[in-house]
């Protein structure tokens, strides 16, 4: 049976816009700030850590809810980052509201961030990802 890596994602809303980040790859580059949940870490701890890692420490948010959605996918055959321990990822989404600050990307793991209207998100993210996130936006 395939194991799925737990991943925490945070959808930050600022008025009518949502924060997206872009990874340095061609496919599935745009997403909400997200990352793997380390052993012994809660989803909330992981999404707080990942938001800081991907968007800097100047962005302040207020977590609004428990899990709002889940998205599961298989890793491509050539994805060796986790040495075969996981066959895919299970992304758990949480919502937050923006309090203050702006995103400051590291230009390595994340190369761009952008505040987007709901309609823009549909055109940036992968279709299956959109089908999950459009429900809670």
Which descriptors would you attach to this protein?
137 residues, Nucleoside Triphosphate Pyrophosphohydrolase, 8 strands, globular
Topology:
Elements: E1 4-14, E2 17-22, E3 30-31, E4 34-36, H1 43-55, E5 60-63, E6 69-74, E7 88-100, E8 112-116, H2 118-124, H3 127-133
Parallel strand pairs: 1-7
Antiparallel strand pairs: 1-2, 1-4, 2-3, 2-8, 5-7, 6-7
What would your notes on this structure say?
- There is one protein chain.
- The protein has 137 residues and is of the alpha+beta class.
- Helix content is 20%, strand content 36%.
- Strands 1, 2, 3, 4, 5, 6, 7 and 8 form an 8-stranded mixed beta sheet that branches.
Distance between the termini: 33 Å
* Biggest sheet architecture: 8 strands, mixed
> Would you give the CATH topology?
Nucleoside Triphosphate Pyrophosphohydrolase
> What's the CATH C level?
Alpha Beta
Our count of helices gives 3
H-E order: EEEEHEEEEHH
Quick recap of the structure?
The chain is an alpha+beta fold.
